[in-house]
Design brief:
Low-confidence stretches: 1-9, 488-500
EC number: 2.3.1.51
Largest sheet: 8 strands, mixed
Strand content: 5-15%
CATH topology of the largest domain: Glycerol-3-phosphate (1)-acyltransferase
InterPro entries: AGP_acyltrans, HAD-like_sf, HAD_hydro_SerB1, HAD_sf, Plipid/glycerol_acylTrfase
CATH class of the largest domain: Alpha Beta
Number of helices: 20
Number of strands: 16
Structural class: alpha/beta
Strand order of the largest sheet: 12-11-13-10-14-15-9-16
Family: Belongs to the 1-acyl-sn-glycerol-3-phosphate acyltransferase family.
Shape: globular
Number of domains: 2
Protein name: 1-acyl-sn-glycerol-3-phosphate acyltransferase
Keywords: Acyltransferase, Hydrolase, Lipid biosynthesis, Lipid metabolism, Phospholipid biosynthesis, Phospholipid metabolism, Transferase
Mean pLDDT: 87
CATH architecture of the largest domain: 3-Layer(aba) Sandwich
């Protein structure tokens, strides 16, 4: 059975169409889903100029640049060979542990922001179908393993660099995973793991991966270059186009400056509006709503919300949310409006923007390294809830690098049970694109928010707490995978808050 006989039409497809095809296609672990890396899963990086390489020669920055800038999409003829020659010479004499550490650091600092969210959703669809996920790349393990781990790939095929006693020799071990080399590696892997390529899926962007796509029943060209586009048209392969995630530009800097101005201006106006009441809570609520509206209006970021009614009632409640970005604070303020405060990590007190605002709003700051101190700090929160004020908390405990929903801590759920109030999940999508995890720069776009129905925790058996919390976490996972339709008229709209 040939790929052309079983693939969908050769036209450009939407991501939703591709996900629907995965859901309706063959299921189970014998079905492989093979993804290329650069240009398919992650937007590539621009190579440095000769002058830039010369200025960095021989230092740690040069090693880091060689790991980052060789993550590319389509490569011209001979470019991959030059890449190998360069990195083999540069990496020779360095230890595998050093390159592994640099690769992990690079992912945390930079690469995570270049992952395609569209690829994330597609990978999750294959995972839900029970498929065996395989990342196949011509790059080294140092460049791809951190991303593969974060993305949930069980198996990674890569070009191996030879080492002797943990020190790189400057040679490749075996055959590079380039052109037929990658296709051969996938074919061997499939045979070793009893995978059925005749029902499998593969995704790649560049012409050298045509042999890989020809292996499977369901090939897809992602952001294809000219030669790949031509072959996709010839073979009726579907095409997907993922939007590049560009680096920070002048417009982003200007938008960020306007956002800070809107934040401070809105906060000041909010406090002034309610100052005559001399009621600190009313001033805090006014500050929160005006600051959120001012920030959204100044940055041009829009919000699309579903389940807005659950954001307003029942109150009080413990709102739990998935945390990926500093912009989440603005999102939550816009969605919840008033009558809430937060539980945040102690480190936020040093943030010159959010620290003072959160202190004024009566947030509880916790030291995550001090378990006993954390319990003591959370004890008064139960009384806060009983007084009628809602609480917002990120049960993951910290921001994630990607849309992945990490393990949930139990604190929020214990608090809700003790205060006899419901848990209300607030699922946020795309905030990590608006502002990357460790970045204060705001990019344009839209943030989707789904407020889910309240969950009564009063009847939970303490012995089953772990399983119950995991079920709540899975609500976040399933909502991110299968997003609900936004409300046409969100309740209590603020500036920057729109419908679908």
């Amino acid at each position: 059975m040939t790929a052309s006989a079983t693939a969908d039409s050769g036209a450009t497809h939407t991501l939703d169409e591709a996900i629907a095809a995965v859901r309706s296609g063959p299921q189970g672990p014998r079905i492989p889903a093979v993804f290329d890396f650069g240009g398919t899963v992650v937007h590539g990086f621009t190579p440095d100029s000769a002058l830039g390489r010369l200025l960095r020669r021989g230092n740690r920055a040069d090693l880091t640049a060689s790991l980052r800038n060789t993550i590319r999409g389509s490569r011209a003829e001979g470019e991959y060979e030059r890449f190998l020659q360069r990195v083999m010479h540069l990496w020779a004499g360095h230890t595998e542990s050093e390159l592994t550490e640099l690769g992990a650091e690079l992912f945390r600092d930079t690469i995570h922001g270049h992952l395609y969210p569209e690829a994330w959703r597609l990978i999750r669809a294959h995972e839900a179908a029970g498929h065996t996920l395989v990342l196949a790349t011509s790059l080294s393990a140092f460049q791809v393993r951190p991303a593969a781990t974060e993305l949930g790939f069980q198996h990674v095929l890569f070009t191996r660099m030879a080492a002797r006693e943990g020190v790189l020799t400057g040679h490749v071990e075996g055959k590079p995973l380039w052109r037929n080399g990658k296709a051969d590696a996938v074919r061997r892997f499939a045979a070793e793991h009893d995978l059925d390529l005749s029902q499998g899926y593969a995704y790649a962007d560049a012409a050298p991966d045509i042999p890989l796509l020809e292996l499977v029943a369901h090939p897809t060209a992602v952001n294809p270059g000219p030669r790949m586009s031509m072959r996709a048209a010839e073979q009726d392969w579907p095409i997907l186009r993922f939007r590049p995630r560009d680096d920070v530009g002048p417009r982003d800097i200007a938008r960020t400056a306007a956002g800070f101005a809107g934040l401070f201006g809105g906060a000041t106006a909010g406090v002034a509006t309610a100052a005559a009441t001399r009621d600190r809570r009313r001033m805090a609520d006014s500050m929160i709503t005006h600051a959120a509206g001012g920030t959204l209006g100044a940055t041009g970021v829009h919000m699309r919300i579903t389940g807005a009614e659950y954001a307003r009632a029942p109150r009080p409640a413990v709102f739990v949310f998935n945390h990926q970005s500093q912009f989440d604070m603005v999102v939550l303020a816009a969605v919840l409006g008033s009558g809430f405060t937060g539980i945040v990590k102690k480190e936020v007190t040093s943030n010159p923007v959010f620290g003072p605002l959160l202190r004024f709003a009566g947030a509880t700051f916790i030291d995550r390294s001090d378990t006993a101190g954390t319990r003591a700090a959370l004890a008064p929160v139960v009384e806060t809830l009983k007084s009628g004020l809602s609480i917002v908390i990120a049960p993951e405990g910290t921001r994630s690098l990607t849309p992945r929903v990490g393990p949930f801590k139990k604190g929020a759920f214990h608090i809700a049970a003790q205060a006899e109030v419901p848990i209300i999940p607030v699922v946020i999508r795309n905030a990590g694109e608006i502002a990357w995890r460790n970045s204060a720069v705001v990019r344009g776009g839209a943030v989707d928010v789904a407020v889910l129905p309240p969950i009564d925790v009063s009847s939970w058996n303490p012995a089953d707490m772990t399983a119950e919390i995991e079920r709540v976490r899975q609500l976040f996972v399933s909502t991110l995978l299968d997003w609900p339709v936004p409300d046409e008229q969100p309740a209590h709209p603020v500036r920057g808050l729109t419908g679908p």
